[in-house]
Amino acid sequence: MPRLNRIVESALYVDDLERAAGFYRDVLGLAPMLQTKVLTAFDIGGVNVLLLFKRGSCLKTQVQANGSIPPHDGSGPLHLCFAIAADELAAWEATLADKGVAVEGRTAWPRGGTSLYFRDPDGHLLELMTPGNWPSY
């Protein structure tokens, strides 16, 4: 069986792309790598890419000179988890509070690590996790 190495991109679908991109930029400190009418792409730690798509904008095959991208979309509140350093947990809690973002949950995992849960403007559940919960993190 060929091996999968990692997830390169994860996508969230949002109703207001400008509002959502502003949240990820201003609250989480991410810098856009690419911005179009239907997409904003953010680098996550130099190893992953978060794609924000305007909901409903990719329902048809996108044909380009170099190939095509099949239709895709999503609805409902989805979930993403971001890795953070253990010694930055308190700073993240303070940052979220300063930005008016409510922490909805906090979990200390039995294997180690702690998670904070909060929502983006589209209701997606976001998580900040310190190392220890998973064998790979």
Layout: helices, strands, pairs:
Blueprint: E1 9-14, H1 17-26, E2 32-35, E3 39-44, E4 48-54, E5 62-64, E6 67-69, E7 79-83, H2 89-98, E8 105-108, E9 114-119, E10 125-129
Parallel strand pairs: 1-4, 7-10
Antiparallel strand pairs: 2-3, 3-4, 5-6, 8-9, 9-10
Share of residues in helices = 10-25%
* Helical segment count: 2
% residues in beta strands: 35-45%
β-strand number: 10
**How does the overall form come out from the CA principal axes?**
globular
Compressed to H and E, one letter per element, the order equals EHEEEEEEHEEE
Amino-to-carboxy terminus distance: 24 Å
Short summary:
With 137 residues, the protein is of the alpha+beta class.
Give the tags:
single chain; 137 residues; alpha+beta; 10 strands; globular
